[in-house]
Specification:
The complex is a heterodimer of chains A (121) and B (425). With 121 residues, chain A is α+β, with helices and mostly antiparallel strands. Chain A contains two helices and ten strands. The chains are: A alpha+beta (121), B alpha/beta (425).
Chain lengths: 121, 425
């Protein structure tokens, strides 16, 4: 099988390095263009198992200041599951008080990743 | 009249970082004036991640990033007056503000840090023909509605402008069940960060139409459709390329404007390019004792850089009030070398530097005016090139920086200018 080269933009930080990932026989053999280790990890992962952090909001009851609490997946989840995660959160409400890092929904969609609050309420 | 060593106008990321830095430099009689009921500024509605990689070496959401600074300010006992709108800053640093508790009041400040941030360019600045129906929002307004109020502005969306907030909102609206038909960008390149195009548009199959603009908004009471056309090299719509997109919502992400009404009132000289104050190596404006940082100075794309810049401004404000009157007078007369932006570099912050007063290292930030590939960012001290760094891509949406060393400037007495420019080789 021939070598395949894929051009990617690293999304780890706003530098947005242009990566060239070389794939040979389904294996990543080289990542070039990255300026840090995270870029190499991203390049390898993006062509084999792309993942994303999902951020959204859920309604909060009983807070003096907030109607919504912002939340995120505590770590990245597989990209194809983004909309499943949103669906799992559709009916979730939380009660004040909420602290940053509080688990809003454990093990979302069986990923082993928790949804945690990112704002106080 | 109430006296304060430092008054900081704005309690967003810039104001908080400036306050903390000034306090840590030993000037503790500080007051932060914030018009919102909470601190943190626009970060509170920026619920996406990607903040803090430089500052904290981890990836935070906007509210988390803000909270770290709010907590630190609270730990230090820095007074922050919320719900307080500053009405005027005078050239001799009397800050007049209003709130429910005190009414209108004035504070004599030893120094002032301007940290008011920026606002979005509104529809009125765009000359889009059509009625004025409901359903046209700036991207930031939509962001506030969705993330703070929990309200969806619409279901079928067209976005004009590819600034970062527009890109972020394309993803956010999609996640919340809306359909984003396209993002139309007038210029042949995006004004947003590449990573946002990848993870907010490409991930969701949202087309980015470069060199396109909205030519008509249809609908009398509510937006019913918008017309999008391709534009030619002089940015004029090309007849026959118009396409109608039925929709109920048009979001605008067409630029941010530093909010400098107060600066103007104080007599601060503004740059026609950044629309922010002209500042020296200490981020001091043309009015002695008045400093500026964050998006009121020039629009940033990274809050981490706002925090760094604001910390420098806060330290400068502290240094100013700690110095003697004689020292301040002497500073006024010190020789300054202009920093000249050339050949693709649109502006620099700061725009003048005193080698005698600068720190050992000074970060000069700038933006370029077009998309450039494989160019060198060069710094000349007088005629001599002292730095030459290759960049694969430079784009107007991404702020760049060079670091100047005091030793380099001091070892070259008599240089009349510092030039930052792009070179092909």
């Amino acid at each position: 099988m021939a070598e395949e080269r894929r051009e990617l933009t690293c999304i780890n930080c706003p530098l947005g390095c242009l990566l060239t990932v070389t794939i040979s026989n389904g294996e990543v053999v080289a990542v070039e263009g990255n300026t840090c280790k995270r870029g190499e990890v991203y390049g390898r992962k993006e062509v084999t198992n792309p993942t994303r952090i999902v951020t959204t909001t859920v309604p909060v009851d009983g807070s003096a200041t907030e109607r919504m609490v912002s939340v995120k997946t505590a770590s990245d989840i597989p990209k194809p599951l983004i909309f499943d995660v949103m669906a799992a959160l559709a009916d979730v409400r939380v009660k004040a008080p909420v602290a940053v890092g509080d688990v809003v929904l454990a093990n979302v969609c069986g990923t082993g990743v928790d949804i945690v609050a990112t704002k106080e309420a | 009249m109430e006296q304060r060593d430092i008054v900081i106008v704005g309690g967003g990321p810039a104001g908080l970082a400036a306050a903390i830095s000034a306090f840590e430099q030993g000037t503790t009689n500080i007051c932060v004036l914030e018009r919102d009921v909470q601190l943190g500024g626009i970060l509170n509605q920026c619920i996406h991640n990607g903040f803090g990689l430089h500052t904290f070496k981890e990836e935070l959401t906007g509210p988390e990033y803000a909270l770290r600074y709010v907590k630190r300010a609270q730990e230090l006992g820095i007074e922050c007056r919320m719900g307080t709108m500053v009405l005027d800053v005078s050239p001799d640093r009397v800050v007049t503000a209003v709130n429910e508790r005190q009414g209108v009041f004035s504070i004599q400040a030893g120094s002032v840090v301007l940290a008011m941030g920026c606002r979005e360019r509104p529809r009125g600045a765009l000359n889009i023909p059509g009625f004025r129906p409901a359903g046209v929002y700036t991207a930031g307004t939509a962001q506030r509605l969705v993330n703070i109020e929990g309200q969806m502005p619409g279901r079928e969306v067209v976005i004009l402008g590819s600034g970062d907030i527009g890109l972020i909102m394309a993803r956010r609206m999609t996640l919340e069940g809306a359909h984003v038909a396209c993002v139309a960008e007038l210029m042949p390149y995006s004004g947003g960060l590449k990573r946002n195009i990848v993870q907010c548009l490409d991930d969701y199959g949202i087309p980015l139409l470069l060199s396109h603009t909205v030519t008509r908004v249809e609908g009398k009471r509510r937006v019913e459709a918008v017309w999008v056309a391709q534009v030619d090299e002089s940015l004029r719509p090309i007849p026959g390329t118009e396409r109608r997109y039925p929709c109920d919502t048009l979001l605008l992400s067409v630029g941010l404007l530093p909010e400098n009404e107060l600066s103007r009132g104080a007599g601060v000289e503004l740059s026609p390019i950044t629309r922010g104050p002209v500042v020296d190596e200490h981020l001091q404006t043309s009015v002695a004792g008045v400093f500026a940082c964050g998006n009121v100075l020039h629009v940033h794309d990274l809050v981490d850089y706002v925090s760094q810049e604001a910390a420098a401004a806060g330290a400068s404000a502290a240094r100013y009030v700690q110095g003697s009157d004689d020292a301040r007078e002497a500073d006024k007369d010190v020789a300054r070398i202009p920093v000249v932006a050339q050949d693709g570099v649109r502006y620099t912050v700061p725009s003048s530097i005193s080698p005698d007063l600068m720190d050992d290292k000074l970060t000069v930030r700038f933006r370029v005016g077009n998309v450039y590939k494989d160019r060198f960012v060069s710094v000349y001290l007088g005629e001599e090139r002292v730095s030459h760094r290759k960049k694969r891509v430079l784009a107007p949406g991404e702020m760049e920086e060079v670091v100047l060393k005091r030793a380099d400037l001091c070892s070259r007495p008599g240089i009349d200018r510092i030039v930052v420019k792009l070179e092909e080789e």
